[in-house]
Specification:
The chain has about 725 residues and is of the alpha+beta class. About 35% of the residues lie in helices and about 20% in strands. It folds into six domains: about 1-110, Helix Hairpins; about 135-365, D-amino Acid Aminotransferase, Chain A, domain 1, CATH 3.30.470.30; about 370-455, Nucleic acid-binding proteins (OB fold (Dihydrolipoamide Acetyltransferase, E2P), Beta Barrel); about 485-555, Orthogonal Bundle (DNA polymerase, domain 1); about 560-630, 5' to 3' exonuclease, C-terminal subdomain (DNA polymerase, domain 1, Orthogonal Bundle), CATH 1.10.150; about 650-730, Rossmann fold (3-Layer(aba) Sandwich). It is built from 27 helices and 24 strands.
Amino acid sequence: MLLYSAQHFSSVIITELLNALFQDVYAEHSPVPKNDYSLQMQFGSYTSLPEEAVNRAAQLRAEINRANRLYYIENSPELNDAEWDARMQELLALEEAHPNLKTPDSPTQRIGAPPAAGFDEVVHPVPMLSLGNVFDEDGFRAWYKRALDFLELESAPMVCELKIDGLALAITYRGGVIERAATRGDGERGEDVTANVRTIRSVPLKLEGPPENIPPVIELRGEVFLPNSKFSTLNIEREAAGLPAYVNPRNSASGSLRQLDSTETAKRPLDMFFYALGYVEGVDSPSSHWDTLQAINTWGGRKNEWTRKANTVEDVMAAIANAGEVRDSLDYGIDGVVIKIDSLSLQSRLGFVGRDPRWAIAYKFPAERSETTLKAIHVNVGRTGALTPWAELEPVIVGGVTVGRATLHNKDEIARKDFREGDRVVIQRAGDVIPQVVEVESKNQRPADSQPYKFPNACPSCGAETVQAEDEAVTRCVNGTCPAQFERLLEHFASRGALDIAGLGERVSQDLPRLEFVSNIADIYRLHERRDDLIKLEKMGETRVDNLLKAIEASRSQPLSKLLFALGIPGIGSESAEWLSRRFHNMTGVKDATEEDFLGINGIGPIVASTLIDYFSVEQNRQLIADLIELGVNPIDETPEPSADHPANGLTFVVTGRMESMSRSEAQNRIKLLGGNATGSVTKKTNYLVAGAESGSKLEKAQRLDVQVIDETEFISFMENGEVPVRAEFIS
């Protein structure tokens, strides 16, 4: 009874009482109970702890964690606030009296830790990639058809989930106990926010269930958000304290999760839904996405209860319609519905295109609109010389976000819609993200002296004459020495998707050229010679400069694909940069390639090939590559070329009909990996027609042209074993 009566005293008094109790009463000590797995894992056997203290702490952890699950996950609270607080205070006192009792899964870890110096970088073992978007039924139907065509199936069951407007997180559990939580970041690397995530009550600190049913290492993924009701309360409290109100729940959640002091995060009522597995070790994953969600829920991870199955397009559209109807009644923001192919084996077959999975799509709700005044029109110059107009607006709230500027797209769009400074205009956030000016408001009244906007004929940065190609809507500055282009290129070169040079952001990218510290990209790698000068710059100092120089040095080891993307070559994104890297292996190979070489890469078309030739024909660009190589920025892609010894190398195949073990796309990929060519039409130059079931006109044409026809079994043997199919009439 002493323990329970002590709950009503301060934690200091409780601690003193417990210390006295344990010192006077318990003379014999015993190891940690076998059922307290997390404590055994973390600390092993503790003969220095009183048995009653160990047992009581384990009991309290179990009771509090159970209460948290019932309250936050199952919405059926078991303990009232006073009962919950009493148990928490008792556990805090026990852990203060006996620090070795403190475990990673203890609910006391939700209170927060001392401020951190910064966030460590985390490399995701399985990338957290983005989703493609569709905005109407036609777009969804087209996506679904592409997926089915790729799989060569008539239908595939799907799962629909609400697209929560929050922040994606990956949480790793080892031995069932939370080990690390990381933000999505750029999809490949995020920030370690473990201390902050521990404070979120709906995040299990320890997974539930028998140890044999929990993978030794497992990564749960989901979305962190701030409930709308809690957001309103939070803003009322901030305004009462004389602090500025937060703009919207999503930004508030982001800011809360990135607090260096996790005790501050603990004060923010963050919540979380789980929706997927990332890396899993040691136990077979479920066979479907639906079963995955049920498994996560069984382990204590909260899934969104709205989630539903769909077998047809009509089922999906009905789910989307329902989500739109309930949207305003939810206590959290959503901006659409995510649709996923349910079968995980089909997901694996579908794979990815670029950074988007083929097996999932986001159906985005129509953008919200507001009206405001277009105060002024400005023009930015991008890294490729493109002049992009944008509108300075009278700030207005659109979809819960205050918008003060928005894109105007291009010169032709301004002329077509006749946007003028001073107009009342309609604003929307495209995909609930990018603000854009849609149209002039219908009741807009212009003053008598209103004039159409005149797009600049000269570059706003360097004054050079601008050009607009006949087949382009973009107006460009073609001056290769344009300062604005170089600033944007410098910023792009250092961005996360490129060479990831921390500290070389927008402000520094503007300062370095302006102060003549750099005149081209290669000069970045000479900045160590100007360390003393850099330290003297405003807001720099020794620490920032040294961190910047370390990041620059580290960027030398980035892969070739990253460097190719970082150069900002028009038309070269991250995916096409990968293709170039694997084909040519080094910068010299890319620089010296012919247009024919580029066109020989699957995915590189005539426009991109021509752009590459144009880029590398410019002497300044060739010199830049030479300078980078001389400075040690010369990554090598050691991905092996297709074996020249494989008999498929250099041959041309056409795949037709339905195959049993793989789709046509998969068969074509296998051909390409071995150096063969996979084409869509049968000609005299075709070496083999791979004929699956229900082959049609292509089979007939192959027979007319005397092209050798092989079946699926022969094809697999050819690919895997190099056994060349031989016509029966050739066998003597």
